[in-house]
Design brief:
Chain lengths: 285, 328
């Protein structure tokens, strides 16, 4: 069922709060990735505030949907979304990457309840998600498995081994979301190592493919609903996103893949997010 | 003399001793534990016959997962299955798993600390004719460096069976090293086995030499000890299947009053079992040592016995190392 305008507006408000937290935690951490987390804020909001069947107060609830983050380096967005959803206090986000923190620079399952895997080294999340989906199906479990992957990590061979496996076993309880933001550390993906035609590649591996605007909350949620209705194939949603989304001065700029804002930049970015680039007044801006 | 507490085969030192490959122990053990624990699954990368994974496949087809030639995917899918409550055994040649998929094992199994049991087959030069590409000689070193990883090299087929069962009953990741060659089955169903415990095979009053070995060379060590006794050199032989965690008490006991220690393994002398013993003894009970293993080389094609002799891993080379220590 389509979401009402009010529901969409509510989700967008959550996404804005999550983007603010991302900027604040990165400024405090003085290291980490900026573009990817901002670009995936809408999608992570959709997951934690609408799509996932989960209990933040009981992170290891057996029947929860599983959300696997393969490209672990965008963990600030996952941490921020989890905190806003009630997994832990939002102020803990400021411990990101610090000694003794549960919020490691790349996510570690053993340190923070609510993470499904330990990740960071690229190309491994899809096969772990496939393994989880396969095992749950063996046991007749009904919950869904979601896996967030980056576009750059499609360059890893392990991804295609996993794509073959999921296609072979028709893992319809698995839905993958690719953050198609076209950037990676050394430049644009199509310059570093062309991925296109990426949708055709997945189709050739017997996947159902949906392409969607990753910032259109309603379209994204509809895509996830479509995936649930496909029973013969795993689904990949190629979500076209804008790296650095919400902060126009860094949007599309691959140089923001792997660096954090300075304190000065952080103030400016927060103002951009809070005023939607000056379009709306904001009491705290 | 043979340690009677070890309840070893009554055919030791005779031609009547049964011979089998440790990989057969994987086949038997996995079927046995599969019957008792429905969480056990076996994944294999297109080597189900030669890894003996097909023994499990025949009994439990619904719990066998054919991965194709994709060892990286095998390790990571297993990690996912473990996260969903399964106890996955992954089987391939050690050269490919953990050789090919080391980082996947490091991140998604070891750091993630899930109960995946990594079964590295065809380890050592005794693989024989396949040659250097398939003779894994670095796996013990790679795996024992990983925090939280248990590392076991069973001595024979019967012990391998027990290791597989015990591994399934242990929390956390385990690496088990198997070989292809048929070797003497010197233990029996009565022989005690526990992960983390060493087994004394040969004992002498006032032993002057300790021979410590891992994997199927335990029997070679026994043969050497018997020959040495005939020339008046009293030794103790400690079979150490669990390389990590080491049975420190047993290693200290076996080496307390000896003049020298010889370690024996079908693995690079650098970084493997002998190194583990040297790391421990040098800090707790320093003693002159000779590390018998492969000396910074790759293997080659040949018959198993021919190769073991060539690389200095037969009884005569052990005796030579012992005499060398006695003279030193």
């Amino acid at each position: 069922m389509a979401l009402t305008d009010t529901e969409i507006a509510k989700l967008e408000k959550h996404a804005e709060g999550i983007r603010e937290t991302i900027i604040e935690m990165l400024v405090e951490a003085k290291s980490g990735h900026t573009a990817g987390p901002l670009g995936m804020a809408d999608i992570c909001t959709a997951f934690y505030f609408h799509i996932l069947n989960h209990h933040p107060e009981e992170p290891d609830w057996e029947d929860r949907d599983r959300l696997i983050l393969s490209n672990g380096h965008i963990c600030p967005v996952r941490y921020a979304a989890m905190a806003h959803a009630g997994y832990f206090p939002i102020k803990e986000c400021l411990t990101l990457r610090k000694f003794g923190s549960r919020l490691q620079g790349h996510p570690e399952r053993l340190r923070l309840p609510g993470l499904e895997t330990t990740s960071g080294p690229l190309g491994e999340g899809l096969s772990q998600a496939a393994g989880i989906a396969y095992a749950l199906r063996m046991d007749g479990k009904k919950q869904r498995v979601y896996c967030l992957v980056s576009d750059g990590e499609q360059e890893e061979g392990n991804v295609w081994e996993a794509a073959m496996f999921a296609g072979k076993h028709k893992l319809h309880n698995l839905t993958v979301v690719m953050d198609r933001n076209n950037i990676q550390i050394d430049g644009m993906t199509e310059d570093v190592m062309p991925l296109e035609p990426i949708a055709d590649k997945y189709r050739a591996f017997n996947w159902h493919v949906i392409e969607v605007d990753g910032h259109d909350m309603s379209a994204f949620i509809a895509a996830v609903d479509e995936a649930k209705a496909i029973f013969e194939k795993p689904t990949i949603i190629i979500a076209h996103t804008i790296p650095g989304k919400g902060v126009p001065e860094i949007e599309f700029d691959y140089r923001w893949h792997g660096k954090p804002p300075t304190a000065e930049e952080g103030k400016r970015f927060l103002k951009e997010i809070r005023t939607m680039s000056g379009k709306v007044p904001h009491e705290y801006a | 003399m043979l340690n009677t507490d070890a309840k070893l085969s009554s055919h030791i030192f005779t031609d009547a001793i049964e011979k089998a490959s440790t990989r057969d122990g994987f086949g038997k053990g996995s079927v046995e534990i599969g019957k008792n624990d429905p969480r056990v699954v076996v994944l294999c990368a297109d080597l189900s016959e030669s890894t003996r994974a097909e023994w499990f496949q025949k009994e439990f087809p619904e719990r066998f997962v054919e991965m194709g030639v994709a060892e990286q995917n095998m390790a990571t899918v297993a990690s996912g299955m473990a996260a969903a409550g399964k106890i996955p055994f992954i089987a391939s040649y050690a050269a490919f798993s953990p050789g090919r998929n080391y980082e996947q094992i490091r991140t998604t199994i070891a750091l993630n600390h899930v109960p995946v049991k990594i079964c590295g087959m065809h380890a050592g030069v005794s693989v024989g004719p396949d040659g250097a590409t398939h003779q894994m000689l670095e796996d013990i070193g790679l795996m024992r460096m990983l925090p939280g990883m248990t590392v076991i090299a069973p001595g024979d087929s019967e012990e391998a069976r027990k290791v597989v069962i015990a591994a399934a009953q242990t929390d956390g990741p385990v690496y088990i090293r198997f070989s292809r060659a048929v070797t003497p089955v010197f233990t029996t169903s009565e022989t005690p086995f526990e992960i983390g415990k060493a087994l004394q095979l040969w004992k002498s009053d006032d032993a002057t030499i300790a021979i410590l070995s891992t994997g199927s060379l335990g029997y070679t060590a026994l043969v050497a000890a018997e020959a040495l006794e005939k020339e008046g050199i009293r030794s103790t032989v400690l079979h150490v299947p669990t390389v990590k965690p080491l049975d420190e008490a047993a290693v200290l006991d076996a080496t307390r009053r000896v003049r020298g220690v010889v370690t024996l393994e079908e693995h690079q002398a650098a970084g493997g079992f002998g190194s583990a013993i040297a790391e421990f003894l040098s800090q707790h009970q320093p003693v002159p040592m000779r590390l018998l293993g492969i000396k910074n080389m790759f293997g080659q094609s040949g018959d198993p016995d021919q190769l073991l002799e060539h690389y200095g891993l037969d009884s005569l080379h052990i005796q030579e190392a012992v005499r060398d220590l006695m003279e030193g």
